[in-house]
Amino acid sequence: MKKSVACIALLNDKVLIAHRNPTGQMGSRFEFPGGKVDEGETEEQAIKREMSEEFGIKVSVLEKITTGHFVHNEKESSLEVYLIKVPHDGMTEKYKLTEHTDYKWVDIDDIPKDNFVDSDLSIYPKVKEYLKTKKSVN
Fold first, then answer.
1. What is the DSSP string of 76-122?
2. Is residue 25 situated within a structural domain?
3. Has this prediction a pTM greater than 0.90?
């Protein structure tokens, strides 16, 4: 089974989402930041690597929120979802994007309004429920 990670960054009661580059099956859709866990890599290592490669930032991994499951290209995958802490909001000092065209901070309730990838929508209800108990992690 393939394993991926989704990163939930919460700042000022807003959640970070990113707009994917227009290529590939999930191109031009929004997602929670994250990506695949490589062979021999822990979930925490994958989160730190993905956020460094795709956003140019060093993050802290705080706690696991949930696990989701989905099928992509006929392969079963797990989606490990973690709360992370980002070093800044990416507004004054922009994140350095490599896999995305844009990012924004949104209310958790507004996520279904964007064209979100299916795998992230599948874990959205659990993330929303979890975030009701949290405040910003800065």
1. EEEEEEEEEE-SS-STTTT---SSEEEEEEE-GGGGGGS-B-HHHHH
2. yes
3. yes
Q: How many domains does the chain have?
A: 1
Q: Which domain holds residue 28?
A: 2-89+96-131
The alpha carbons of the chain give a radius of gyration, in whole angstroms, of 14
Q: Considering the domain boundaries, does residue 138 fall inside one?
A: no
Q: Is residue 136 part of a domain?
A: no
pLDDT in tens, 102-129: 999 999 999 999 999 999 999 999 999 9
The tens digit of pLDDT for each residue in 18-63 reads 999 998 777 889 999 999 999 999 999 999 999 999 999 999 999 9
Q: What CATH number does residue 23 fall under?
A: 3.90.79.10
Residue 85 CB partners (closer than 8 Å, separation 6+): 9, 59, 60, 62, 137, 138
How many whole angstroms separate alpha carbon 20 and alpha carbon 107? Answer: 19
Name residue 74's beta-bridge partners: none
Q: Which two tokens stand for residue 73?
A: 């290209």
Tokens of 110: 């507004």
